[in-house]
Amino acid sequence: MIYQGKAVTVKPLEDGIVELNFDLEGESVNKFDRGTVEELGAAAAALKADSSIKGMIVTSGKGVFIVGADITEFTDMFKMPEEEIAAWCLKSNEAFCAIEDLPFPTVTAINGLALGGGLEMCLATDFRVMSSKAQVGLPEVKLGLFPGFGGTVRMPRVIGVDNAVEWIAAGGQHKAIKALNDGVVDAVVEPDKLREAALALLQQCLDEKIDYKAKRQEKLEPLKLAPMENMMAFQSCTGMVMQQAGRNFPAPVAAVQAMQAHAGMNRDKALEVEAKGFAKIAKTSAASSLVGLFLNDQALKKTASKWEKQAKPIQQAAVLGAGIMGGGIAFQSASKGTPIIMKDIADKALDLGMSEATKLLAKRVSRGKMDAGTMGKVLSSIRPTLNYGDFENVGIVVEAVVENTKIKQSVLAEVEQKAKEGTILASNTSTISITKLAEALKNPENFVGMHFFNPVHMMPLVEVIRGEKSSDEAIATTVAYAKKMGKTPVVVNDCPGFLVNRVLFPYFGGFSMMLRDGADFQKIDKVMEKFGWPMGPAYLMDVVGIDTGVHAAEVMAEGFPERMKHDYKDASEVMFENDRYGQKNGVGYYKYETDKKGKPKKVVDQTTYELIKPHVGAPKDFEDQEVIDRLMIPMCLELVRCLEENIVSSVADADMSLIMGIGFPPFRGGALKYIDSIGVKNFVELCDKYSDLGAMYEPTAKLREMAANGESFYQ
User: Fold this and answer.
1) Which tens digits make up the pLDDT trace of 24-80?
2) What is the DSSP code string of 144-165?
3) Whole-model pTM above 0.85?
4) Class of 314-494 in CATH
5) For 189, which of 193, 436, 581, 599 could close a Cys bridge (C-beta 3.0–4.6 Å)?
6) Using alpha carbons only, how large is the chain's radius of gyration in Å?
7) How far is 656 from 659, CA to CA, in rounded Å?
8) Which CATH code, of 3.90.226.10, 3.30.450.40, 3.10.20.90, 3.40.50.800, is assigned to 3-283?
9) Contact (Cβ atoms closer than 8 angstroms) between residue 489 and residue 590
10) What are the residue numbers of the active site?
11) In what order do the strands lie in the sheet with 114-115?
């Protein structure tokens, strides 16, 4: 053995060939934590000192190659000054450069995922052979960063400026054929031929059939572009990236600017530029929030996995109610491998549900994500029916009928009698108490809420709601089924609106009060979209459905009258009373016309102003920050209350639910992260500034205590 570490080993093979192998002890995947980087440097020193070595292959002892850097180390590191972060990058790069500078040819065999630092390691070797089943990429921009282990330096020198900008600024994860066509790897072979192909390529270098030194030299020198050509290439790329990324995600543009800045430098000078740029972007709020989101997502997955261990396996599911929602649930279940029965009381409804599932599947086929044969198999695993005859083998039934307590209770009581003993019943209600619905059941312990968000196939979140009598087994089985459907389940406790809708409606309440006080709904929409929401509150209400929103607001007002009941005529109520329901009937706050692609396009409708005029104050132009404050404070405070009341069990669950359920701006990290970014003390002072607006703006006693103690949600 030439070198033996906990993550890296180097052993001799034969004829002067050695193998450097990544196999991180005690972990299921390889990653570049600080220990691995240090071992790589030590291994490189041992390799350089052994004059008998003629060549090296780099392999992985796990099913992946290397998944990237250890993100858990980032949060502490990013608290350091920029100079120290840059110094860390340069110190880490010494190991990669030491591998690149070895006095013999090197070939990496990429057997599985090679992402971020994993791909940067591959780029440090002379050649790369990739399994046809592997995937590679530089996804750092999705964490608000850009590559810091030499990726911005080596990638443009290996594949050219345009391709490098695409790979780095878009942050995609690519299949083998894309990697080969773009020049990121030199060969693609079937998995069982990978090692043999890597050794064969290495032998060609040793036989001087391939000039590995010339290939290596290109990575050590400036880009071979004339100054004017260099400027034009990067300027056109910068404009395109800026347009696609937007101002709230600075990392992609910063990556392109770093590549342009060091294009005329040799490797070592270029790495210094990369390190300084990485350090600067690492200190942005976007990086802090997006790294936090990644860690929160990992925490959610870990929690869901714990529930899965207690779950009953679901081989057959059923959905009651075959409308758009029922069809979406059926599509999602069947497309992820769980056959589903779709039950309704009318043929017309079943036709609608099957039509929805067929439309979604056809769209996947048209985009090349599924072939026609697979589409046929998925459709055949959705069985429409008017009766309960096939329910004897159903493990879980999702009720998705009209949002009415009595109707839901009747349907649930009926299916409980028809289904086998122990079948889990789950209601896809968005507001009605699970404990209340359970009153109609003989076995309430088998009943939970399973709140999907619309459209089902696009929204990742599923709220799994625990009623007062819901059993752990029922929760666990529903969580496991949601995960099998490709969704991210979050377990919450029962209350009006559960978690997401309970938190959303104070936001709508802030919007409503601003209209009452003379604000323009279009101005509010523009400000909140600039803040980072995918759509402003008026547009969002139109998309949700104003009739749905008004009904939900009534439920919330009944549940939390001190905060959510109002004593004025709400603009959405005016829309509802005038049959303006939003996109579903073509007119709400806005009017909707069909664009060239057949999608609804919003246009301004002056009638809206005429209808609400008798119920609002004189027009008033509010500052952008006041608009933000008056809408965000009620939302943030309600999430704080949910956390304190144990409606949601963790800060991670709380913030991720808003991001996945209603599109909270991801670069802000969630509502609790947003409070932290302001500072809890400053946030409480901001609440007090608006105290005359009522209880929605009143901080909890515990939040005031946190402010006094200098605490934060993300310690």
Assistant:
1) 999 999 999 999 999 999 999 999 999 999 999 999 999 999 999 999 888 888 889
2) T----SSHHHHHHHHH-HHHHH
3) yes
4) alpha beta
5) 193
6) 29
7) 5
8) 3.90.226.10
9) no
10) 451
11) 114-115, 135-137, 173-175
